[in-house]
Specification:
The protein is α/β, with parallel strands linked by helices. The chain has 2 domains: 186 residues, Glycogen Phosphorylase B (Rossmann fold, 3-Layer(aba) Sandwich), CATH 3.40.50; 164 residues, Rossmann fold (3-Layer(aba) Sandwich). Helix 1 links the parallel strand 1 and strand 2. Helix 4 packs across helix 6, helix 8 packs across helix 12 and helix 11 packs across helix 13.
């Protein structure tokens, strides 16, 4: 069976969609050695135009959802697949393309959410002009319904697809962590300092203020803590200066790209010393960072929202608090786990075990490959 991989960008680029198509493709290549990869699903300048127009219109116009361009680009892709005698395709996060490709070839649709979920969940998505929103919903519906299989990483997304699109061809397969290479098992030495790691490009959506409030409350509780901030955040100079003046460490790393050796080394160093990944996110369709934390045997503390429960299992690789929980509740959970060393070390070991059993790309491929083979 000759398989093709289609994504929203180049599947061989680790920067596309946080590297998910890249790692997914690499896992599939073991089962489909002659896989055909569509490296340029859109014209060269299309992504730059899309990004600029979306930013200029504050999200009102996104050419991703134009029917004419999606059909044109999909037709070009299908012609290339026919020339290569491709028998089936897996379309990763590209419903505008897969909606048309699925009319010509057996397709496995891969996404972390449905459009109806996104419309009610992400405020940014609801900024779209209504005609474009209708197109997005149509692309999603056609892609899921016409595909031979729809693969989602969480039950949250899969349940929406089953209910909204009334299809039985829906499968739940957790995604792996995007680390290259994944860390070897770590000997967990007893830590004297509780090192909290926060990762987020969108400070507000990832719950950055709740994170800092909880950190300050842990300090008031007498818990010896320090912080690593990865990603972007607003100007916190004055607030952080006060924390540092009191003798506590806050390390600001900015955005770390794991596509470079230097970035991978820095991320690895931070996570090897981490005690908790603490991201009280407000919205998340999955949360690859939680899978990455599990690879290091680092427990995650986050919010029971969206697809996060598909990655974090309470008491196994972390704990989830409800969406109304405040900083005090988060601080108490962290303090209670940290103060019980046997419980904490057990959580670290079970987090690593969850990574080894489920949250890795070979495990994903083991379940996905038979489904894909059955499509032709």
């Amino acid at each position: 069976m000759k398989l093709a991989v289609v994504s929203s960008g180049d599947p061989l680029s680790p920067s596309v969609w946080s590297g998910t198509p890249y790692y997914m493709t690499r896992a599939l290549r073991l089962a489909f050695p002659d896989v055909f990869i569509v490296r340029a699903p859109r014209p060269r300048l299309w992504r730059q135009i899309r990004r600029g127009l979306t930013k200029f219109t504050m999200g009102a116009i996104d050419i991703e959802w134009l029917v004419t361009t999606a059909r044109s680009h999909a037709d070009a892709i299908v012609k290339s697949l026919e020339r290569e005698r491709v028998e089936a395709a897996i379309c990763i996060g590209a419903s505008p393309l897969s909606a048309f490709v699925a009319q010509r070839l057996p397709v496995a649709h891969v996404s972390d959410a449905t459009v109806p979920l996104m419309e009610s969940y992400y405020k940014e998505f609801s900024n779209l002009l209504r005609p474009l929103m209708r197109n997005a919903a149509l692309f999603d519906a056609v892609s899921v319904r016409n595909s031979k299989a729809a693969l989602f990483p969480t039950e949250w997304a899969a349940q929406s697809a089953r209910k909204t699109y009334e299809t039985a061809q829906v499968h739940v397969i957790p995604w792996g962590c995007n680390l290259d290479p994944p860390p070897e098992p770590i000997d967990y030495e007893e830590q004297t300092e509780c090192r909290l790691v926060f990762i987020g490009v969108d400070w507000k959506r990832k719950g950055g203020e709740i994170f800092l409030d909880a950190f300050e409350q842990l300090l008031e509780f007498g818990c010896p803590c320090s912080v690593d901030l990865i990603g972007s955040h607003p100007n916190l100079t004055k607030r952080l200066a006060g924390i540092r003046a009191a003798g506590f460490q806050v390390r600001e790393h900015g955005f770390i790209t794991k596509s470079t050796e230097q970035g991978r080394a820095l991320f690895d160093s931070i996570m090897r010393q981490a005690s908790f990944l603490f991201v009280p996110t407000r919205q998340d369709c999955y949360g690859l960072v939680f899978a990455e934390a599990s690879a290091y045997g680092v427990p995650s503390v986050a919010t029971h929202t969206g697809g996060v429960p598909g990655v974090i299992e309470d008491g196994v690789n972390g704990y989830l608090l409800n969406e109304f929980a405040g900083s005090t509740q988060y601080a108490e959970v962290i303090r209670n786990i940290w103060s019980d060393k046997d419980r904490y070390l057990s959580l670290r070991h079970s987090a690593r075990h969850r990574f080894e059993e489920q949250l890795n790309w070979p495990a994903w491929a083991q379940k996905a490959v038979p489904i894909i083979r059955h499509m032709s």
